[in-house]
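Protein folds are increasingly written down as discrete tokens. With that in mind, we are printing a sequence and the tokens encoding its fold.
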Amino acid sequence: MAAAARAPPQMSGYLHKKAKTGKWQRRWFETNAHFLTYYKTRKVEKLLAALNLPQVGEIKLVDPDPNDPENNGALFTIELNTRVYTMKAGTREEAARWVEVLKALQAMDVDDARHAGAESPHASIVRTGEGTDAPGPDSYWRKDSKCCGCFRA
């Protein structure tokens, strides 16, 4: 008898994401099976991006830099190809929890994660909206109002 697929850990909340310009942007982040998705706000349904966690590189806490007033020890990064996403949580403990959950999702068997509720797009990141890559057939997502996840229409 096959072992039951374990439910993936879930997490959602506001984080600050460092933009390419160096400015901090407050965004609503959610985990959904093996994806990290983010939106402009919690109420907005338009997905800005979805990172396919099994296809990203290192996810890690960033040590505090005493010369950087923005780095209070609550920063973490996600490497994706040549880009490093830098996020800031409210506390170091919250940042550590995000890293723990994201690493667990990154290590999950993709088939188990898909079975738990999400289908995989063909790229490591799916972007929608102005100023981003043109949406493809797999890039339209809507938030599921019943949970913190989202689904494709």
